[in-house]
# Entry
Amino acid sequence: MLRNTFHGIFSGFYFKNCNLGREIESYANTALTAIMDKAPYDASVSAVIEKQGDLYRGYIEIYSRVGSFLVNVSGTDSKTIIDQLAEKMHRKIELWRSKRYFMGLTRTPLLTQ
# Structure
C-alpha cells in the first residue's frame, strides 16, 4: 500500500487516482487537521483517498509513541468516505484518551489520606 507519511509538518491527505476538486480536498484536510489536534503529541499521519473503479478507498493511520491508530473505509461517495474516516478515528482517539485517563487515575495515590 502506498504510504504518504508526514512527520512534524502536517501536509494533509494524499489523493491517488482521483481529482475531487478543491472544495472536497479542503474538506478532507480540515477533517484531518481536527483529528491531528486530538492525536497524541508526537503523532505522525498517513492519509490516503484512492479511486479504484467506481469505489473510493480511504485510510488514515496515525503513528505515535503510544501506538498506532488505523481506520479504513470504502464507498462510492468521497465526502461520505471522509466523514466515516473522521468519525471512526475520533472514536479510536477518544477511546485511547479515556483509557489513558482511567489508567492514570488508578495509579495515582489518593491525596486525601
User: Anything to note?
Assistant: Residues 5-104 form a domain with the Double Stranded RNA Binding Domain fold (CATH 3.30.160.100).
